[in-house]
Design the sequence.
């Protein structure tokens, strides 16, 4: 029986998440599996990966072949590096302490990269929010200026109209004062 480490799709339409499983290669994609190794959610940024590294390493050592995507996930989580280091220990190329030290150094570096990416994403989101608020304030200011200008024009037009009406009212009064017979 050929065992594959692959993804099983779950979730809803246009919002999928995946279970990482060890399954018989002949089984359907979302069907029967041997063991659940973790989950992968590509909808978050960065993608959320929950993986039992010990189970995955056990399956890799027993000959399970990961799919391309699962190979990338296992590499991202460091399972393939751990397998490589354990192979070096078995061959005698390095000691267990040296392998553990390399593993811990890699893990610390990876955690620093992930936290830097999360901080960068939050800083970018804050900057975008600040920029949109500034743009909205500018638009509101322009609207307020346009309204004030329009009200000033309307007030000036109304004052001119009232002045014209007052002038028209004075003209007939002057005519009647000059011509009392009319």
Sequence:
């Amino acid at each position: 029986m050929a065992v594959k480490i692959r993804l099983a799709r779950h979730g809803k339409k246009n919002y999928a998440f995946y279970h990482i499983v060890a399954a018989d290669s002949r089984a359907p994609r979302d069907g029967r599996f041997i063991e659940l190794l973790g989950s992968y959610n590509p909808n978050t940024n960065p993608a959320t990966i929950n993986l039992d590294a010990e189970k995955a390493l056990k399956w890799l050592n027993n000959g399970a072949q990961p799919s391309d995507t699962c190979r990338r996930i296992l590499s991202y989580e460091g399972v393939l590096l751990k397998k490589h280091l354990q192979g070096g220990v078995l061959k005698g190329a390095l000691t267990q302490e040296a392998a553990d030290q390399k593993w811990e150094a890699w893990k610390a570096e990876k955690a620093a990269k992930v936290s830097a990416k999360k901080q960068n994403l939050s800083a970018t989101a804050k900057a975008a929010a600040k920029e949109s608020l500034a743009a909205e304030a500018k638009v509101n200011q322009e609207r307020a200026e346009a309204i004030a200008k329009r009200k000033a024009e309307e007030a000036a037009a109304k004052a001119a109209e009232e002045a014209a009406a007052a002038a028209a009212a004075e003209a007939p009064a002057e005519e009647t004062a000059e011509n009392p017979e009319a």
Q: What stands out?
A: The radius of gyration is 38 Å. The longest strand covers residues 3-12. The longest helix spans residues 96-178.
